[in-house]
Structure formats: C-alpha cells, structure tokens
Amino acid sequence: MNPPTTPRRFQHKNLVVTGAAAGLGRVIATTFAREGANVFILDRDSADASLAELASLGVRAGAARCDVTRETDVIAGVKAAAEWCGGAIDVLVNNAGFNGVCQLVKDMRLEDWNRTFAINITGTMLVTREVIPYLEKRRAGRICNLSSNVGRRGLPFRGDYVCTKWAMLGLTQTLALELAPLGIRVNAVCPGPIEGDRIEQVMEMHAAAEGRSPAAVRTAWEEAAPLKRFATPEEVTSLIAFLCSDDSSCMTGQGLNATCGFIMT
C-alpha cells in the first residue's frame, strides 16, 4: 500500500510574490511551490538563486526585475507575470519591504520617511492595483500583505516603519471590503522578529540607536515574548499559505499575529 500523500493546496495555481530574491520572500516562494504552485517573482535584485531552487521543486518559475516604488516597473512587471501565466494569477503576496531607519521622530529626515512609505505602502498599492484586474476577470483570488507586530503598537526610533505597518492593515481592510463582491479575499500577517539576516540588521540598528549591544536587544525582545524566542521563516510562511488557501475561506480583512505571543490582540 502506498503511503498517503500530503494534499497540495496550490496545485496548478499561480503565485506572484514581491521581494522573493532572498530572505523571507524566498521562503514564501518555496513554501507555495512545495504545495504545487507555480511562482513568478518581482524583485529589484536578481532572482536567479530563487528560480533555481523553485525549478528543483518541479514547478514553473519566472521573474522580472521590478522596483516597487517605480510605477513603470510595476506595470511592466505585472504584465510580464500575467503573460507568463496566461493571465491566470491566483495569489498575490506583497512581501517587498524596507526596515526603515532608527531615528526619533524629532530627528526624522523627510527623505528617510518618504523612502519607507514608498517601498512599504506605495509599492504594495501599485502592485495590488495592477494585479486586481486579472483577479477580477476570474472573480476569484487571494492577496496577503506583510504587516508587522508594530502595526498594532508604537516603537521608539521606528516611527517611519511603524506608521507604514499600521497603514498596511488599513489598506488590507479597505481592499477586503472593495474586493469581497468580486470573490477576492485579502488578509495580512503581522510577524514579530523572524530569525534571519534581516532581524540581525534591525537589532544592530536598535543597538546603535539605544546605546546597547545587539545581544542585549535580542535578549530583551526574546524575554518579551511568552515563548521566549523569535518565529522561524517557515512558521510565518505557513501562516501566509493558510490565509491564501481554502482552509481560511471565511476570513478576509484579517491581520494574524505570528509573534510567539509578544502581541496577542
């Protein structure tokens, strides 16, 4: 008797994901691919390494260079994605993002503030705007946006980033209301610190701004979480996959925490 196979929730589905040349985005891409999804990556950097890994998983994969802050890039990138899959886009994950800077608001440089908003919010809006017509034609589809635990609270030194992540939840809820009549669901995840290079960079920024060591920052953040640790990329991406699958068919406009208990509401 053959052993039972794990259901592949995204078999023959087409995913468009931003910022998947490396880091969490790459794990998102491979998580969906392992469940059968074909993956198209939009990233300003080369996605060759991600494409090679996706090919090894036996799915179709493509990519286009795209700076999400440039409208012309986004229009061309989404058009390329649509041509790649014959217009049959099923899922969009807006993962591309920027950590922002470590500055008190009283010291905030306008160019830093604007850059963070351009990447995190304007970029998400532009990509979503361009993908919606393809989802609308099919009267189906799933969108997942990356917010943050600081989309639910303030954080000293991170005013630009915090405000974009609060805005991401507002954008998610607005899209959910606008797109529900078209059969499109829109949700968000709100991670806490996620193990990997990116959080190491963030802790170094905080350490420099706060006058303590990165190790002290890590200890403080781990101690603030009831589970006393950071989430893994795979734990976060499994939640994203859940929100984009039929397993969450009654959910839209939600922001789900992945914080090891650090945020509970």
Mean pLDDT: 96
Q: Give the number of DSSP strands.
A: 7
Radius of gyration, taken over Cα atoms and rounded to an integer in Å: 18 Å
Strand content: 5-15%
Termini separation comes to 46 Å
Class inferred from helices and paired strands: alpha/beta
Apparent shape: globular
Low-confidence stretches: none
Structure notes:
The structure is a single chain. With 265 residues, this protein is of the alpha/beta class. It is 46% helix and 14% strand. The protein contains eight helices and seven strands, in the order E-H-E-H-E-H-E-H-E-H-E-H-H-H-E. Strands 3-2-1-4-5-6-7 form a seven-stranded parallel β-sheet, sandwiched between helices. Helix 5 links the parallel strand 5 (141-146) and strand 6. Helix 3 packs parallel to helix 4. The model has no long low-confidence stretch (mean pLDDT 96).
Task: Considering the chains and any ligands shown, give keywords for the structure.
single chain; 265 residues; 7-stranded parallel β-sheet; alpha/beta
